[in-house]
Structures are given as structure tokens and as C-alpha cells.
Amino acid sequence: MRIDRYTKIVLTVIAACLLWLSGGRSLVPSLHAQPQLHLLQSGDLGYRVDQLRPGEAPTGTLVVQIEGLWYEAKLDYRK
């Protein structure tokens, strides 16, 4: 029985795909669509009161704590 050229090509492609799936992925650099996000703990989110008037709700700024320092939170409302 003689194996034709098409069958050899198909079997070669299948073998190459199996090798790639079994561990050859390290040859391809990993890509990340978004930067690593800092996950907040429960005490890392706060509200800094900027103005307090009698009879009105306090106004202020949302802040987050990262590595012991407090930063103003920047909110992004894009859709």
C-alpha cells in the first residue's frame, strides 16, 4: 500500500500540532492584553471628606491604599 503526498502532509501537520500542544508553547512569547491589576483588600478603599457643611451630605474623594500610601481613585466611565 502506497501513501500519497496529501496524506503525508496531513499527518505531518497533525504531528506538528500535537507537539506544539504538548509543550512547545514556551517557544511563543506570552502576551497580555491588560496590565496586571492590583487587587484591593477590604480596608484598602476609603472616603476622604473634603467639605462638611451642617445639614448637607459630606463631599469628598474616593481613595485607595496601595503599599501603605493613600491615592485618589480615578474612575473611568467609558463604555
What does this entry show, briefly?
The model has no long low-confidence stretch (mean pLDDT 79).
Task: Set down the secondary structure blueprint.
Elements: H1 5-23, E1 45-51, E2 59-66, E3 69-72
Antiparallel strand pairs: 1-2, 2-3
Structural features, described:
- The chain has one helix at 5-23, and strands spanning 45-51, 59-66, 69-72.
- It is an alpha+beta fold and 79 residues long.
- It has one domain (5-72).
- A three-stranded antiparallel sheet has the order 1-2-3, with no helix packed on it.
- The longest helix has 19 residues, at 5-23.
State the order of secondary-structure elements, H for helix, E for strand: HEEE
Q: Which class best fits the helix and strand makeup? A: alpha+beta
Radius of gyration: 28 Å
Number of E-state strands: 3
Q: What percentage of amino acids are in beta strands?
A: 15-25%
